[in-house]
C-alpha cells in the first residue's frame, strides 16, 4: 500500500485557499492589523528625521523655482530643549547667524547685545532707544525679547532645477533684540535669535512671498 502524501497541483492549492478565504470572509468580520510605521523608542527621532528628509526631497523634486530652502539642524531630543535651528546670513558682507526655528511665532530677530558681528556694524544703522519701530514678543514658555525693527539683506538658499540650490538674498525687516528674558538666557537656548515661521505679514517667509521671491502656500 502506498502511504505517500498525494501531490496537489499548485493551482489546486490556490483554489482551495481562495475558497477558504471566501468562507472566512462570509462568516466573520474582516480585521486589518494596524501598526505604527516607526516602532521602538531609541531610533524613533532618527527615523522620523530620515522620513521627513525623504519627504522634503520629494517636495523639492516637484518644484522648479521660487522655493525657499532653509536646512534645519538640532538634536530634537524630547528630554532636552528640543531645539531646532537654521543658518542664515545677514548684512553685506554676510554674517552667519544660527536662529531657532519656531512655528508658533512670526518675526525673525537676532541678538544685538553680545554678538561679535552685530547687525549695527553693517549698513542697517544702530538700534537706538528712541527709534520708532520698537517690538516686544512674549512666547508661550514665558520667555520674551524686545528691541527694534531694522532692515537689511538676508541670505538664504533657493531651490532651482533638479533640487540644486543657489544663494539668494532679499531685503527683510527683522528684529534687532536689545533684551531677552526667561529661557532665552539659558545655555540650552543659546542661539543668535529666532526665525518665526508664522503666517503674518511680518514673518520672513511672508515678506519673501510679497516680494515675489517665494510662493505662498
UniProtKB/TrEMBL annotation:
InterPro entries: Aspartic_peptidase_A1, Pepsin-like_dom, PEPTIDASE_A1, Peptidase_aspartic_dom_sf, TAXi_N
Signal peptide positions on this chain: 1-28
Disulfide bonds: 115-133
Domain Peptidase A1: start-end pairs: 84-217
Record-level Gene Ontology MF annotations: aspartic-type endopeptidase activity
Keyword line: Disulfide bond, Signal
Domain of life the protein comes from: Eukaryota
GO biological process, one term: proteolysis
Family: Belongs to the peptidase A1 family.
UniProt name for this protein: Peptidase A1 domain-containing protein
